[in-house]
Each structure stands twice: as C-alpha cells, then as structure tokens.
Design brief:
Layout (H helix, E strand, L loop, with lengths): L2 H19 L2 H20 L3 H31 L5 H33 L1
Helix pairs in contact: 2-3, 3-4
The protein binds adenosine-5'-triphosphate.
Length: 116
C-alpha cells in the first residue's frame, strides 16, 4: 500500500469537507445536527438510540455532499439549460429530501415518547 498516496487522498477528502462547510445547505444541516445532539444529551438517549441518531446525522451530511458534487458536475457538463440537467439536479435534491423526511420521522419516534 502506498502510504503517501493514501495520505494525499485523505487530504483531498478533507478539502471536500471544508468545501462542503462553506455551502449554505450544509451549514443548515450542521445547525440542525447541533440542535439534535444537544436535545439528545438533555433527553438522555440510550446507547442504541445514540447510534441511530449519529448514523442518521452522518448519512445526512454525506448525502448533502453527494448532492453538491452532482450539482457541480451538472454545472460543468451543462452550463446552459437542459431538461436532463434539471432532472439530475432535481433527483439529487429529491434524494436529500426523502432522507431528511424519514430521518425526521425516526427522530420524532425516538424523542417524542421520552418527552411525554
Ligand atoms: N443547467 C440546468 N438546466 C436545467 N435546469 C437547471 C439547470 N441548473 C439548474 N436547474 C434547475 O434549477 C434548480 C436550482 O438549481 P441550482 O443550481 O441553483 O441548485 P440549488 O439546489 O439551488 O443549488 P445551490 O446549493 O448551488 O444553491 C435545479 O434544481 C433545477 O431544477
């Protein structure tokens, strides 16, 4: 295994995370995740509930980054208006929305019984 290449790839991935942090949508997800983590701390989640919450947060971040990557590639490949470019962007955004809705439902199923 080429360690130098591995470290360089890790650096590129880290730069990707930094790039994502500058995105408005990603900042909103960071804020939401912070609120959920604080709520989880004060609610007193079980170990398995923490695993689920952390997994959902990580997947949400990862999906948002893939969505941003798709947007970038579409902008590069199709700077002018094209129905396929629209479909690609709308599908990617739709994937984020589907995951966000189901994450919110799972979150409510975890938190609400503990609050009431
Ligand atoms: N090249 C294109 N051809 C056709 N429709 C497009 C194109 N680019 C964007 N659109 C449409 O406009 C919408 C918004 O595009 P935009 O690039 O602003 O994405 P966004 O979700 O607002 O991303 P950002 O996070 O960069 O603001 C897309 O979801 C798509 O419906």
């Amino acid at each position: 295994m080429n360690v130098r290449k591995f470290v360089r790839s890790f650096g590129y991935a880290f730069k990707g995370i930094i790039t994502a942090c500058a995105e408005q949508n990603f900042k909103s997800h960071l804020l939401s995740a912070g609120i959920v983590l604080i709520a989880g701390y004060f609610t007193g989640l079980s170990r398995i509930e923490w695993y689920i919450v952390l997994l959902l947060i990580a997947l949400m971040f990862a999906l948002e980054m893939i969505n941003t990557a798709i947007e970038r590639v579409v902008d590069l490949a199709s700077p002018t208006i094209h129905p396929l470019a629209k479909q690609a962007k709308d599908l990617a955004a739709g994937a984020v929305l589907v995951f966000a809705i189901f994450s919110a439902i799972i979150g409510l199923l975890i938190f609400i019984p503990k609050w009431f």
